[in-house]
Design a protein that fits this description.
By secondary structure, this protein is an all-alpha fold. It contains 19 helices and 2 strands. Strands 1-2 form a two-stranded antiparallel ribbon. The N and C termini lie far apart (63 Å).
Length: 500
């Protein structure tokens, strides 16, 4: 009951006119910046850090929270409409959201995303209030072998359900893992695949990889076919969800937080792994398997709800342990230190008003996001009425601006278009794009966790399976890989019985 008492006090802080104004500013700024490819919520919070010097700490963090949630939603808007993820958490949304937009259902996809963000945010923030201490204590016990096993599960789960064949899925994953190797070795400091240039020493930013494979690759693919198959503007569609849409989305909206919140809460978590797993889960459970890859609304609703709940989960380890699990949490940690505040187990005692005001503002920001963006869905969808040549020329322009904004280096633009050519080739030969993105995002982290686990076991492979959690995950991986064979064996054993 103490948590609810503190939360009510937090609402008293968050609902003052001044703090409501800062929450609204944060949500609007976050959505606007999230729409721009490459300029995600982390960069937005970092850019606004100097602006908040004159503000009190509570107002500053309420605005930062609004930017965080707004940035994640803005990223999904361009994923759906333009196949251009504004940040890594919005990558999965493009897989089903963009085909929906191309078929004239962009408004429904945006509405499903907005409501998914609302549901995921509300459930995730409620879980933050109720479960923060318990989740934080469990998270401390998760070691390197468990992290590596989780990442392997994400690799296998995604590559086994996407594309025309598993071979193509694993080929795409190999491309992503290769891109993830570029840069300096995190342990030895040796350069890998940098071709002697210092510009690649820090590796290739995930946003550049995602924007290159999705936006540039898609634009080049469309340009290559426009001359042969001229197409008019894409229809906008009606701006509401039908009863059939609601019937298909309410379960993914509720399942999303179950996947997203725990992953966001554990150190080295974030929204990437849970959104991928949410997509795989919804595809497995869907009754409309023929629509996947062509615009299944569950593939938008589930990952968006998951991403929003994961955003709430990241604040658990950041506030209770002082461990940032995402780039935004890392920037917010720097902001706490800027105000002379050290997140950790004692934060809830020493800065009660600030922490509970921040948590209450998450509820407020989630409601503001829904109120502001749900009516805007048909307005955003009207972007699709632009003629195709102008639309994709604009995508290439904003993709280039976003890539340059990441590091301010012209080499990033060259890398962007080289990766775009790889994306074009992948579309030409039928390789799914998602495993490559997953490999580039999680590959470096998986390598680091594997090395840590092997170092702890003096190089013995048993170090990768020395915990109950890792063993359980590997059993799931084996079942995923063996399932097609098991399904054939079951079908063969049943066939004689049906004939008899």
């Amino acid at each position: 009951m103490d948590a609810f008492t503190h939360l009510l006090d937090g609402f008293g802080t968050a609902l003052t006119p001044t703090h409501l104004l800062f929450a609204a500013i944060g949500v609007i700024l976050g959505t606007a910046i999230g729409v721009l490819p490459g300029i995600g919520p982390a960069m937005a919070v970092a850019l606004l850090l100097p602006v908040t010097y004159g503000l009190d700490s509570t107002a500053a963090f309420i605005m930062f929270a609004g930017i965080y949630y707004g940035g994640m939603f803005g990223g999904s808007t361009t994923s759906i409409l333009l196949n251009t993820p504004g940040e890594s958490a919005a990558v999965v949304t493009a897989i089903e959201g963009n085909p929906m937009a191309k078929s004239g259902r962009g408004s429904q996809a945006l509405a499903a995303a907005a409501i998914g963000h609302f549901v995921g945010g509300m459930i995730g923030t409620t879980a933050l209030v109720l479960l923060a201490p318990a989740v934080a204590s469990v998270a401390v016990d998760i070691g390197a072998p468990d992290y590596f096993a989780l990442m392997m599960l994400a690799f296998i789960a995604v590559t086994s359900v996407l594309g025309a064949s598993r071979v193509r899925g694993f080929a795409s994953l190999l491309i992503g893992l290769t891109v993830g190797l570029i840069g300096l070795d995190q342990v030895t400091g040796q350069s890998r695949l940098t071709f002697g240039t210092l510009h690649l020493a820090d590796g290739i930013d995930v946003v550049i990889v995602a924007v290159g494979l999705f936006a540039v690759g898609e634009s080049l693919w469309v340009a290559a076919h426009l001359r042969h198959k001229p197409q008019g503007p894409i229809p906008v569609g009606r701006p509401w969800l039908s009863r059939a849409d609601l019937k298909r989305t309410w379960k993914p909206w509720l399942r999303g937080p179950v996947i997203g919140f725990p992953f966001g809460a554990v150190p080295a978590g974030g929204a990437e792994i849970p959104t991928f797993l949410s997509y795989v889960t919804e595809k497995r459970l869907s009754k409309h398997k023929d629509e996947w890859g062509k615009g299944a609304i569950e593939g938008v609703a589930g990952p968006e709800s998951t991403a929003s709940a994961s955003a709430a989960g990241t604040l658990v380890s950041m506030l209770t342990l002082g461990l940032p699990t995402t780039a935004v949490a890392a920037v917010m940690l720097a902001a706490f230190q800027q105000y002379g505040i050290q997140p950790g187990p004692l934060l809830f005692e020493r800065e009660t008003d600030l922490v509970w005001g921040l948590i209450a503002s998450l509820f407020v920001g989630t409601v503001l996001l829904l109120v502001i963006n749900l009516p805007m869905a048909p307005v955003w969808a009207k972007l699709l009425r632009l003629p195709r040549p102008y639309l994709y020329a604009g995508i290439l322009f904003f993709a280039s601006v976003g890539a340059y904004a990441v590091g301010g280096d012209t080499v990033d633009l060259i890398v962007l278009f080289m990766i775009g050519l790889v994306g074009l080739a992948m579309r030409r030969f039928g390789l799914p794009v998602l495993p490559a993105i997953l490999g580039a995002i999680l590959g470096p982290g998986a390598e680091l966790q594997m090395r840590r686990a092997l170092q702890l076991s003096d190089g013995s492979l048993t170090g990768l399976v020395n915990s109950p959690m890792s063993v359980t995950i590997y059993v799931i991986i084996v079942l995923l890989l063996a399932w097609p064979l098991l399904r054939r064996l079951i079908a063969r054993t049943r066939a004689p019985k049906t004939r008899a």
